Write a sequence for this structure.
């Protein structure tokens, strides 16, 4: 009798685990998972970056932003030929990678691409620059990441880094 109870309990546990695994894996085709999202408070914002477009900054001119109006930045320590991100761990906590998208407004779609990060996620590139958000930019229009440590730069709609110092 005890053996049948143990077998039934083990079978119930296995079914529950299988149901949970199935529920977790059928999420509508999204490729971003909790395990692959940036390890920062901006993980949700980065995952929801969606469309990119342009915005007018009073200090930098026309810049590229995400759909929430947050400035996108390039990192001088990345490479563009071939495109490769060099921002991980502590860097990625402050500068979350922008997920790849093909939805653009005001930017030549041929400038967009993607690079595969070490964790397998696809990061948006603009003119081969991997792009990031800055955790210190909290509102639409913020450009607090501009020229941080001299290596972070907002981008023009042509994919050129804006080298203007902080305002």
């Amino acid at each position: 009798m005890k053996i049948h109870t143990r077998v039934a309990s083990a079978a119930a546990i296995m079914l529950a685990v299988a149901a949970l695994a199935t529920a977790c894996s059928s999420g509508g085709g999204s490729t971003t998972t909790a395990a692959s999202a940036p390890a920062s408070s901006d993980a949700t914002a980065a995952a929801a970056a969606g469309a990119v477009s342009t915005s007018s900054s009073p200090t930098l001119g026309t810049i590229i932003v995400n759909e929430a109006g947050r400035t996108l930045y390039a990192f001088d320590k990345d490479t563009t030929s071939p495109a490769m991100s060099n921002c991980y761990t502590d860097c990625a906590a402050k500068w979350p990678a922008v997920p790849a998208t093909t939805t653009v407004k005001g930017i030549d779609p041929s400038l967009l691409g993607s690079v595969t990060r070490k964790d397998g996620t696809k990061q948006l590139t603009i003119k081969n620059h991997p792009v990031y958000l800055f955790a210190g930019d909290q509102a639409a229009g913020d450009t607090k990441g501009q020229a941080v440590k001299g290596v972070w730069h907002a981008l023009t709609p042509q994919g050129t880094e804006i080298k203007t110092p902080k305002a």
In short: The longest strand covers residues 52-57. The radius of gyration is 20 Å. Residues 2-25 form the longest helix (24 residues).
